[in-house]
Amino acid sequence: MALDRIENLIDKYFEGETSIAEENELKDYFSSTDVAQHLKQYQTIFGYFSQAKEQQFTQVIPLTSKFRDKKRNIVMWLSIAASVVVLLGVGTMMYFDSNDSNQFVSCNSEDDPEKVMQETQKALALVSEKLNTGIESVSYINEFDNSKNRIFKK
Hints:
The protein has about 150 residues and is mainly α. It has helices spanning about 1-15, 20-30, 45-55, 65-95, 115-150. Helix 1 (about 1-15) packs across helix 2 (about 20-30) and helix 4 (about 65-95) packs antiparallel against helix 5 (about 115-150).
């Protein structure tokens, strides 16, 4: 009867349906000396678990790792690269926009209101264009941040 129970527990064990108490019963059975001959092949499996339980980890774990240092170096170089990209973007924008400095016309209260309205609309369109250009430049920084977060999962 006990042998049938052990065989059923082995089947349940390999199906992943045993409880901890049943697994302990299997370990106890296979650690004893009176194991049935046709079940001896499983003795090494369950013997390993009792043997592994007694092992101790004795190595010293270093507090600073090379990975952490490499991570800092990568973050530093990515930050420098991002700064260079931003500076090049700002420099390029200033270089190409230096020709457009005479676009604004001063208006006073004696001028035609239609002309003042047109000049105001031109000024607001220019501001909108420059703002959109700036927002596009910042989107590269967001892309950099997303890539950095994928590389260095927090």
